[in-house]
Amino acid sequence: MVQLTPVQLAWLQEIGMDRRQLQPYARRAEDVSAAAPAVSAQGPQARRASAEGLRPAAELLAGQSAAAGAARPDPASGAARPPAAAPAARKLAKAPAGVGSSGPLPLDWQALQDHVAACEACSLHTGRSQTVFGSGATEAVDWMIIGEAPGDRDDRLGQPFQGKAGELLGAMLRAAGVGPETPVFYTNLIKCRPRGNRTPKPEEIAACRPYLQRQIAMLKPRRILALGWLAAQALLSESSDLEQLRGQVHWLQAEDGQRIPVVATYHPASLLSRTRHKANAWRDLNLARSV
Ligand code: URA
């Protein structure tokens, strides 16, 4: 059984994993503390956790049955690969004619951002303070994390994942070894806040889809993590529920034909209230990390 360092154990407790679940991974029983330590999001332990790095996720998953169809690590390279009978990579569905941005989109990142900032393709533009294009690394992107829609705070600040859900997401990523030095880009299916934090409508997602599509094609991320059912089903054009979509590697075909692995998991906002899903979310993160 592979063992976790005390810092890794502390982080996993911090994100709410039960000490009994962690006990088998501890070197010494006392490494799993009765009460999770208070770890500040940017504190020294966070930096230490990322500096120490984590053992390969494939090891962590060893002995846990990955869901049927999950990508298995390639014995030669250690990297995940699509299952032998992998379904063809899915293309991000196109917006129906007449919906969304008209005309060709810019191929330059800043120009694309400016284009989005001026977008009036759906009625959400009337209620926004500003568009929330996304934030993070734009070079050699290791992770592209796609949520649903900006919330009130995100709308005010112009950045995604600024609230409690974002804090939990950050803690989970750090626990999985995705520290501040990892190139991560965060964005959403839609770039404008729906008033009252309501769920985005299909026509709003369709109107924004060309922007997301172009972001994916330009960033060429090594992997995509889709947060929540809405993001998962929109990216994968699947109506299955999240329980069926998560726990396996899907493949998305970008505009330029590149195949990008996609792992779906719970939205951190739902993990705030349904803590029992945190262990599965942790597995999904490690699966994504192993790709
Ligand atoms: N904030 C975001 O940017 N995305 C979400 O999905 C939720 C909150």
What is shown here, in short?
The chain is α/β, with parallel strands linked by helices and about 290 residues long. The chain has 12 helices and 9 strands. Helices cover about 35% and strands about 10% of the residues.
Q: What can you tell me about this protein's structure?
A:
The protein is of the alpha/beta class and 291 residues long. It has two domains: 6-93; 101-290, 3-Layer(aba) Sandwich (Uracil-DNA Glycosylase, subunit E). The chain contains twelve helices and nine strands. The strands form two sheets. It has a seven-stranded mixed beta sheet, sandwiched between helices. A two-stranded antiparallel ribbon has the order 1-2. Strand 1 and strand 2 (80-81) form a beta hairpin. The radius of gyration is 19 Å and the shape is globular. The structure holds uracil. Residues 147-151, 154, 160-161, 165, 188, 227, 269 line the site of uracil. Uracil is lined by residues 147-151, 154, 160-161, 165, 188, 227, 269.
Task: Provide the number of structural domains.
Answer: 2
CATH superfamily of the largest domain: Uracil-DNA glycosylase-like domain
Number of helices: 12
Bound small molecules, by name, code or SMILES, are: uracil
Strand order of the largest sheet: 3-8-9-7-5-6-4
Instruction: Tell me the radius of gyration.
Output: 19 Å
Unreliable stretches: 34-86
